[in-house]
Amino acid sequence: VVNATYNSSAGKIGGGYEFDGEGDYVEIENSESLNFSEYPNMSISVWVYSNNLGDNDGILGSSFSGLGDTQTYFDLYYRTSSWRVRWGNGTSDGIGAEYIYGPDNSLSQINTWYHIGIVANYTSVVVYVNGNQSGDIWTIQQNLHEPDKWRIGMYQNANTQVWNGSIDEVSIWN
Questions:
Q1: Residue 135: which region, alpha, beta or left (left: phi > 0; alpha: psi -120 to 50)?
Q2: What is the value of pTM for the model shown?
Q3: DSSP 8-state code for residue 41
Q4: Are 174 and 39 in contact (CB under 8 A)?
Q5: Half-sphere exposure of 137 (CA within 13 A, CB side)
Q6: What is the Cα–Cα distance from 102 to 126, expressed in whole angstroms?
Q7: Considering only CA atoms, which of 173, 160, 96 is closest in space to residue 87?
Q8: pLDDT tens-place values along the chain, 174 residues long
């Protein structure tokens, strides 16, 4: 845990971590259970509460290296007016990765809890917000490689693209 604060009353369900938007995050080292290169079916569930919605506010991200100039990404973040997922292989600035866009800003209010769910398999990704499918079922062309690490409260590894609010009940299944 880097500068994030656990608060026993800050979560949607009991306690949760608070992030102040100043570079704090929770880091999860690589483990076999999070290796989606061998098990590309995955589901992710997270509760998020924002104090301030900005541009590229990271909720959950992973980076994958060891591919030369190509990196593999998985990011869940909020940008300008929608929830987004970035998935796939690309250059260090994300070119070549696939972007999946969520709903318009009608579900983007500060001081409100949102449940985000992501279901992915070998060929598609579906994003849910508060139990409702958000946008289309996206066909994916790329599988993820083995992650180096995952970060909660940060957009991949960018210290300037962080969450300002609370994150609770993060679950990842393969």
A1: left
A2: 0.83
A3: -
A4: yes
A5: 6
A6: 10
A7: 96
A8: 888 889 998 889 999 999 988 888 898 877 777 766 655 678 889 999 989 887 778 888 876 655 555 556 677 888 777 777 776 666 555 555 556 655 555 457 889 999 988 888 767 778 888 888 876 666 665 555 566 778 889 876 666 678 899 999 999 887
